[in-house]
Amino acid sequence: MSTNHSAAPCEGGKEHGRLSGNLGVAEIIFMVMAAAAPLTVVSGNVPLAIAQGNGALAWTGFAAASFVLLLFSVGFVTMTPYITQAGAFFTYVREGLGARAGRGSAFLALLTYTAIQLGVYGFFGWAMDDAVRQWGGPALPWWAYALVALTLVGLLGYRHIELSSRVLGIALVLEIGVVLIMNAAIVWHPVPVAAPAGSAPVASGPFAVALLFAITGFLGFEATAIFRDEAREPEKTIPRATYGAVLIIGFFYAFSCWCMIEAWGTESVTAIARTYLDNGGNMVLETAGRYAGGTVREIMQVLLLTSLFACLLSFHNIIARYFLVLGRETILPGFLARTHDHHASPHAASLSQTAMAVVLVGLAAWSGADPLISVFGSMAGISTVGIILLMIMTSLAVVRFFQTRPDLARGQTLKTVWLPVMASVVLVAVLYIILVNFVIITGLSALISTGLAILPFFITLFGFCLKNTATPSAAVASGMVD
Fold this sequence. Notes:
Elements: H1 25-36, H2 38-52, H3 59-79, H4 89-97, H5 99-134, H6 142-158, H7 161-188, H8 207-216, H9 223-226, H10 234-264, H11 269-278, H12 283-292, H13 294-328, H14 347-367, H15 371-403, H16 406-409, H17 413-436, H18 438-442, H19 446-465, H20 472-478
Protein name: APC family permease
Main location: membrane
Pfam families: AA_permease
């Protein structure tokens, strides 16, 4: 397989131009953390991990998820200097396992992020409608709010990436700030329900479920490599941003989950979390109001909406860049590889992604599905299976890549073989845990959940079996010869 990934320009526009930018470590971490949507995870995943997972020990699921991702990141980062193209997991898998596996992972990545984006549009529409009604406004269908957000996301995604980075950075600082205020208030106040002397936290459910919800909180993690073309000194910036994002996100989630448990007491938090979930309430908003006051609660409700919007913008940027790379590699139509002469953005891919999102939101609205339980729940399930499967393929690709290039692996056996193999084994175990508990994620019937769980495997196989339609010269130039 050729390692030359340059492609000749095509007629009709700047189809195969590279993106440009000057993103540093902090900016890329902002993009990744915005995709992870910290306030959204604290408001959604944390109560679920407590109620359906191991209760007062739910914070251990987020700590374990951080360990798993750090373990995976070692091989991912070690291979990064030898990957000269954006595309994240897709390009890593292709370099290590070949063109067919690369195409399979590319389609899997598109499915993963398209699914979670649609789910978040459902979540945003539901949350916006709930907030407007609480503020005395009219009850409107969720999809109306989703389409407004979609329009704004499309406009920002069309422009240069640094504009999106600023928007995401501001939203991220605000949402993290308000959660830290709540956490500080909890730490400084006594636990309202004191546990009996000598008692220890009791795990009320399986640790596996807490780990499952923790893993979903890291979606968008691969964005560090997706923005390679727009990064300053990518060989240094991408590894630092990867480790930094995992450590910061992991600590923030685990600490916030621990604070939530302390706020209600280890003996009563599980029952309280279940009560809020059963009655459609927001446990985190109520906790903020209880400890930090009504004003902080109101601010947090607004920032939950901006958190969801930032998440949507981040996923839009990720999907658009997958479109661009796949267009550049002739897997998808070549016009998707065009970049804007003025904004240096993947404008063709961005517009196509916006159009696809409009269609999907329209179909979800037409189906009459509940935006939170059915749309968000089921799409989160698909994306969770997808991201774990992508990481497994990437870990295997790292091992194979360095096996075929022993000169690059010399003196790095731990990083290029043992830790990636260990990561693969751990991730397979995590994938098994997710599949066994898949009905809990989706909230749907066993039959429908099974079908959704199979979809990521099916789309990967489809991409693997798909023949390359590029001309021989174009295929060789892009490194996509089978």
